[in-house]
Amino acid sequence: RFSDRTLLETALTHSSWTNERKNAVHNERLEFLGDAVLEICVSEKLYTRYPQEREGSLTRLRARLVGEEKLAELAHKLELYPQEMENVSITQKPDLATVPEIQDALKNAENQLGKYGRVLLRYSGTENLCRVMVEARDEKLVKQLVKDLAKVVHSALNK
């Protein structure tokens, strides 16, 4: 869920689409920003990993790592899993690690997922909500685990 839907639409709009549409905004400015963030992150890693390397060598290595060809290669290796999230209304926000029912349900979900999924439970910073998110290969399992965890969270945090 996005708080600013226009930002999502901009991020997904290619400049060629905007050629025929008046006042349409495309993603090139966001791409520029993303490129800068990626470059600074990779630069910092290279700088700390290779303390004796000269600037020219670091620049060439960074260019190879963040170039279109390398990023396309990495993108093809990514396996995206189905993801489901539910916002659970709650009346209290104790440390989730101290709620045994939630910890038991969380361990059970993680055991079912194995190494091919993840679970995230976290409170909203602005609302009385606990966000339950599950991501895994099996979409049916994802939906069931979100439902099960949301039920436990609701019961445990609305006493």
Describe the structure.
This protein has helices spanning 5-11, 15-18, 28-49, 55-66, 68-77, 100-113, 139-156, and strands at 83-89, 117-123, 129-136. Helices cover 55% and strands 14% of the residues. The model has no long low-confidence stretch (mean pLDDT 91). The protein has 159 residues and is α+β, with helices and mostly antiparallel strands. It has a 3-stranded antiparallel β-sheet, covered by helices on one side. It has 7 helices and 3 strands. Helix 3 (28-49) packs across helix 4 and helix 6 runs antiparallel to helix 7.
Task: For the structure shown, list the relevant keywords.
159 residues, alpha+beta, 7 helices, 3 strands
Quick structural summary:
The protein has 159 residues and is an alpha+beta fold. Helices cover 55% and strands 14% of the residues. The protein is extended and about 60 Å long.
